[in-house]
Amino acid sequence: MDCIFCKIISGALGTELLAENEQAVAFADINPQAKTHILVVPRQHTVNISELENDTVLLGLFSLIREVSAQFTDGQFRLQFNAGEREGQSVFHTHAHILSQSGN
């Protein structure tokens, strides 16, 4: 598989993880669109959020989103999932964007 997020998750690229749990990892976006721009990515590969049906993975993903947003923002942030190229998805592995103009 030639998925950059799978490579990040496996440690193959040496990307610094900001947080992780059994189901997901979080790291800074390399092309930030806000002062704080963090990606939260499930370890399980699915193309987009519409395909992610495993309740355990979803719970872990959203648990990490809560943890990361509490740690790296002042509580005000946008949470964004893109599904499909037309809607702005450029990496076809499910991921959430946490974007905020604040930073802790």
Kindly describe this structure.
With 104 residues, the protein is of the alpha+beta class. It has a single domain (4-100), classed as HIT-like (HIT family, subunit A). It has helices spanning 4-10, 55-72; strands at residues 19-20, 24-28, 36-42, 78-81, 96-100. A five-stranded antiparallel β-sheet has the order 1-2-3-5-4, covered by helices on one side. The longest helix has 18 residues, at 55-72. The model has no long low-confidence stretch (mean pLDDT 95).
Explain briefly what this protein structure is.
This protein is α+β, with helices and mostly antiparallel strands and 104 residues long. The protein has helices at residues 4-10, 55-72; strands spanning 19-20, 24-28, 36-42, 78-81, 96-100.
Which CATH class?
Alpha Beta
Which percent bin holds the helix content?
A: 10-25%
Total of DSSP H or I helical runs spanning 4+ residues: 2
Summarize the main sheet: 5 strands, antiparallel
Strand order in space, largest sheet: 1-2-3-5-4
Number of domains: 1
SSE pattern: HEEEHEE
Class by helix and strand content? Answer: alpha+beta
> In total, how many beta strands?
5
- Beta fraction: 15-25%
Low-pLDDT parts are none
CATH topology: HIT family, subunit A
- Ends apart, CA distance between termini: 35 Å
Q: So what's the overall shape?
A: globular
Radius of gyration: 13 Å
For the record, what is the CATH homologous superfamily label? HIT-like
Mean pLDDT: 95
CATH architecture identity = 2-Layer Sandwich
Protein name: HIT domain-containing protein
Organism: Aquiluna borgnonia
Active site: 95
Domain HIT: 4-104
